[in-house]
Amino acid sequence: MVLAQLGGSISRAIQQMSNATIIDEKVLNECLNEITRALLQSDIQFKLVRDMQTNIKKIVNLEDLAAGHNKRKIIQQAIFNELCKILDPGKPAFTPKKGKTSVVMFVGLQGSGKTTTCTKYAYYHQKKGWKPALVCADTFRAGAFDQLKQNATKAKIPFYGSYMESDPVKIAVEGVERFKKENCDLIIVDTSGRHKQEAALFEEMRQVSEATKPDLVIFVMDSSIGQAAFDQAQAFKQSVAVGAVIVTKMDGHAKGGGALSAVAATKSPVIFIGTGEHMDEFEVFDVKPFVSRLLGMGDWSGFMDKIHEVVPMDQQPELLQKLSEGNFTLRIMYEQFQNILKMGPIGQVFSMLPGFSSELMPKELDSSNPKLMNESRMMRIARGSGRHIREVMEMMEEYKRLAKIWSKMKGLKIPKKGEMSALSRNMNA
Ligand code: GDP
C-alpha cells in the first residue's frame, strides 16, 4: 500500500468511527483494527504497529471519558501522536551550520539513490547560499565518479575524485582536505555501495569514516525495500554512526512504510525524502506536517513554505492577504499553477490542464463563487481551449476542492517566513 493510500485508509477508518452514533469499545476496536491492517499493508514493522495499538487503547480510556467529550477528536489526536512517535526518534539530527565547515558522509546500498541524493543535498544547500563540495570515494562501481562529476558540473558544484586511485580512504581524505582549504562549508563524501550488505562494504565505510571524521553520516534508503528496511538500517547503524536517514524514490509505487520504520532501527530521523530523479525533487522531511498530511489534516506550514519558495516575494503580501480573507479565486489558482510551471518538470503535468488560458474572462477569473461557472460558460471555455467539457468540469472540481481548503484558513494570522515552524507547532499541538 503506497503512503497516499495509507493516509486515505486511516482517514476513512476515523471517519467511519465518527459516523457511529455511540463510540464504544467495539467501534474503537474496529477503527484500530482497520488502521493496523493499513499500516501492516504499508510494510511498517509488526512490532511497531502492535505497540501503537496498545498505546492508543491505554490513552483512550472510553469509560473515563465523560459524555460531552469529543471522543473522535481525542482518538484522532492519539493516532496522530502515535504515528509521530514511530517516525520521531526523539532527538534531532546534527544540523550543519552555514559558514562553518562540516563533513557529511553518505552510506547505503548500491542503487539506493546515494549518488543522486548527494548532489540533491548539495544543490539544496547551494540554493540557500552554502558553499558545498562533492567528494567521490566510490571506487567500487565503475562509472560512479563520472556520474558524480556530471551531476556536480550541471549544478556548478566543485567536486573531487580520481579515475586512477583505487583507495577510497585516500581519495576521501584528499578531497576533504582540499575543500577545507577552499573554505567550503559543506563537504559531502559519497561512499561505495554494494548489491547486498557484506563485510567488505562495512569495513570500507568504517575506514572512510575513521579517516574523514564526518560530523554527520547519512544513511540513504530506497523506499521500495519493504520489511527488509529495518534489518538493513540496523546493519549500517552497527558499522558507522548513522545520524540521519534519507528515503529515496517516494514518488514511485513503493509502500514507503518499511523505510519509514528504519527510523526505529537507526534511532535517527528521516531528514529529507527523494521524490524523483530530478535535482530539485527533494523535500525536507518533518514528522508532524507529514503525519498531518497523511491523516488528511492539512499541512499549512509546508504550503506556506512552498509559497515563499515559488511565489515572487513582491506578490506575497497581497496574495497572502487575499487568502487569509478566504478569497480564493480561479485567478489565484491560475497564477499559482503558472508559478509552479516555472519550477520545472511538474509544469508539464499542469500545462495539460484545460482552461488556463485566455478562454476565461476577468469576471470568471476573479469570482470566488463557483456557481458563476454555469454549463454554458463551461461549454464556451471547452470550445475555446479545444478541450472536452468533462476536463473543464474536472478543473472546476479541483478549484472547489482547493477553495474549500482555503475557506478553513480564513482569518488566520499571516505568518512571516521565520514564523513558520512556530505556527506549525501551534497548528499541530
Ligand atoms: P547509488 O548506486 O546508490 O549511488 O544510486 P544512484 O544515485 O545511481 O541512483 C540509482 C537510480 O535511482 C538512478 O536511476 C536515479 O536516477 C534513481 N533515483 C535516485 N533517487 C530517486 C528518487 O527519489 N526518485 C526516483 N524516481 N528515482 C531516483
TrEMBL record:
Subcellular location: Cytoplasm; Endoplasmic reticulum
Pfam families noted in UniProt: SRP54 (PF00448), SRP54_N (PF02881), SRP_SPB (PF02978)
Protein role: Component of the signal recognition particle (SRP) complex, a ribonucleoprotein complex that mediates the cotranslational targeting of secretory and membrane proteins to the endoplasmic reticulum (ER). As part of the SRP complex, associates with the SRP receptor (SR) component SRPRA to target secretory proteins to the endoplasmic reticulum membrane. Binds to the signal sequence of presecretory proteins when they emerge from the ribosomes. Displays basal GTPase activity, and stimulates reciprocal GTPase activation of the SR subunit SRPRA.
GO terms under biological process: SRP-dependent cotranslational protein targeting to membrane, translocation
GO cellular component: cytosol; endoplasmic reticulum; signal recognition particle, endoplasmic reticulum targeting
Keywords: Cytoplasm, Endoplasmic reticulum, GTP-binding, Hydrolase, Nucleotide-binding, Ribonucleoprotein, RNA-binding, Signal recognition particle
Protein name: Signal recognition particle 54 kDa protein
Natural source organism: Hibiscus syriacus (Rose of Sharon)
Ranges of residues in domain SRP54-type proteins GTP-binding: 269-282
Domain text: The M domain binds the 7SL RNA in presence of SRP19 and binds the signal sequence of presecretory proteins. The NG domain, also named G domain, is a special guanosine triphosphatase (GTPase) domain, which binds GTP and forms a guanosine 5'-triphosphate (GTP)-dependent complex with a homologous NG domain in the SRP receptor subunit SRPRA. The two NG domains undergo cooperative rearrangements upon their assembly, which culminate in the reciprocal activation of the GTPase activity of one another. SRP receptor compaction upon binding with cargo-loaded SRP and GTPase rearrangement drive SRP-mediated cotranslational protein translocation into the ER.
Family to which this protein belongs: Belongs to the GTP-binding SRP family. SRP54 subfamily.
Swiss-Prot/TrEMBL catalytic activity: GTP + H2O = GDP + phosphate + H(+)
SUPFAM superfamilies in the record: Domain of the SRP/SRP receptor G-proteins, P-loop containing nucleoside triphosphate hydrolases, Signal peptide-binding domain
GO MF terms held by the record: 7S RNA binding; endoplasmic reticulum signal peptide binding; GTP binding; GTPase activity
Principal location listed in the UniProt entry: cytoplasm
Keyword Ribonucleoprotein appears in the UniProt entry: yes
